[in-house]
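[job 4471] stage=fold_predict status=RUNNING
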Amino acid sequence: MNTLMGLWLAVIVVLATPTISVADEEGAAAYYDESLHGTSTASGEPYDRNAMTAAHRTLAFGTKVRVTNLDNGKIVVVRINDRGPHVKSRIIDLSGASAEKLGMLDAGEAIVRIEIVN
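[job 4471] inference complete, writing structure tokens
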């Protein structure tokens, strides 16, 4: 009985542990195309161009990260609600609103630092 209980406890711990990557990452960021507004994200919620959300390959859905544009120092906090980016050279894809606040709409891409804040 104790062995079975210990096995279930181990399963619960593994399932309850969020998937995370390194606490700080630096690399390229881009943002979602306008045509994706309203389409379903990997978390099941619709993509909202006006929400402060982002896609990351490994961070758990709901994780909040501070994104700093290293070119201009602008900062936003976004919530991870999607998987991506699907372009290997990028570390995060941002909603239109968060990209706008970071001042990267014209360039289309920026070098950023991301830090988990929750």
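[job 4471] summary: The longest strand covers residues 24-31.
[job 4471] exit 0
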